[in-house]
Amino acid sequence: xxxxxxxxxxxxxxxxxxxxxxxxxxxxxxxxxxxxxxxxxxxxxxxxxxxxxxxxxxxxxxxxxxxxxxxxxxxxxxxxxxxxxxxxxxxxxxxxxxxxx
Length: 101
Prior knowledge:
The protein has one domain. It is mainly α. Helix 1 runs antiparallel to helix 3 (67-100). It has helices at residues 2-39, 46-52, 67-100. The longest helix is centred in the first third of the chain and has 38 residues, at 2-39. The chain is elongated. The model is unreliable at 1-7 (pLDDT under 50). It comes from Spiroplasma helicoides. InterPro entries: SecG.
């Protein structure tokens, strides 16, 4: 009986450590996303221009090249990693809650 109690407590601590590790990963990824976002070029303001109705570049055939393309790929990759880490944190936390009840 006491051994079962210790085992469940040990599993819970391990699960909490896993969640804590993923939260640290999410923090690092979010800081990297902020950094990449600040480095990115601000030449296209399609979001704000779309609200004003002054979006002349909407259908222009211009491709990102060089550093702009690299930063765009980095931002997309970091966003995908952030999405996956957040879903993982939610699933592991849910499993810990279900496991304790």
